[in-house]
Amino acid sequence: MTSVAELTKAYPLNAALANWAFARTRHIALPDSPVLRARRAAWTGFPQAMRPPFVLEGETLGSLRYWHGAPRTRWAEDWVKLWTLGRGTFVMTNEESQTNQRAMREFAAQGFVDPQRIMVLRTGSNFSQPPPGVSVTASIGDEAPGQVAAFDSNERVGAPVLDELLSHWDRYKDTIPVR
Length: 179
What we know:
Elements: H1 15-25, H2 34-41, H3 47-50, E1 59-62, H4 70-83, E2 90-94, H5 97-109, H6 136-139, H7 146-167, H8 169-172
Parallel strand pairs: 1-2
């Protein structure tokens, strides 16, 4: 049977490290606003999309080409299931992380980076498809006002992890944190 590591399109992370970071950040209050609440209200029938901003774990699917819409979201869900042997759940798009991940894996192959210490933090600014009743063309690229909230959330979620690692590097230098 093929392992996830053998699927060259999947970049598995160290689950113990990811769980450690998630445990440190899962209850962080993320910015919300009346404008964001109004945008979420359009997502009837999609309870996760209607939630206030929150921290979660899951898989992203990146591509070199921008994509948007319900058929493409189903496509992403299917590929994530394939590449994770049915264990992963697609939660977010990206057009950058897979390129960064490839670079980190190349640095690891050269001995510059420990591949077991690679972490990815993504913050959502928009949805991969329009809300019910809105056309794909009307919602393509609509990241405002989510972009500012995403930048703020990125800092709020990343800071405690970095602070812990840097403040206690003597502990983590030779030992990867686990939950």
